[in-house]
Amino acid sequence: MSGRRTLVLAALCGALALAPCLAAATKQPRRGDQVADFAFTDFAGAQHHLSDFSGKYVLLDFWATWCQPCLKETPGLKQARERFQSRRLVIIGMNSDKKQENAQRFVRENNIPWLQSSAASTKQVLHRVLKVKWYPTLILVGPQGKILAVSEGEKPPLYGPSLLKTLDQMLPPGRPCKHSREGK
After folding, report:
1. pLDDT above 80 for 1
2. Beta 89-95 vs 39-41: how paired, if at all?
3. Left if phi > 0, otherwise alpha if psi is -120 to 50, otherwise beta: which for 79?
4. What pLDDT band is residue 17 in, cutting at 50, 70 and 90?
5. Could you give the C-alpha distances from 149 to 120, 145, 158, 179, in angstroms and in order?
6. Going by DSSP bridges, is the β-strand pair 89-95/115-117 parallel, antiparallel, or unpaired?
7. Mean of the per-residue pLDDT values for the chain?
8. Side-chain-facing half-sphere of 43: CA atoms under 13 Å
9. What number of other Cβ atoms are within 10 A of residue 182's Cβ?
10. CA separation, residue 117 to residues 91, 99, 124 (Å)
11. Beta bridge partners of 104
């Protein structure tokens, strides 16, 4: 065999051997997938890891200010945080704005209290870990790091009115409040 043919054959065999790895690297997130730990930097420059939230239910919200459906979902996310925080829910905004000041302004003006990942960090997560391709995308990660639900675009189970219902079904029951009933 000529040197050129040998080289082409070797390259083809190498590509075929890598095919399963390449397929896995481009696979979009699905229910049941284990999420690899990843680091991200928040708007203030502090570094965090997904593993910092081990034992909690983490709702990753992939959003940007140029995405109208993302912005439309903000009141529902606020309701979810308020209603399910006692049931170990944490929301992390994974912002993709090229100009971080746009996202920071939106967060400030809308009193969004949850942690926000900078666009540079989000880009790393998008390309290396979760392969998110649609906006908005919401991913619910369970306490052991497995994906429990995914919504891409404006679809259930985590988008719109179905968000609260899905969280209510998937998160463990809340602890009863310890309010004093003295004098009643």
Report:
1. no
2. unpaired
3. alpha
4. very low
5. 25, 12, 7, 34
6. parallel
7. 84
8. 22
9. 5
10. 11, 13, 11
11. none
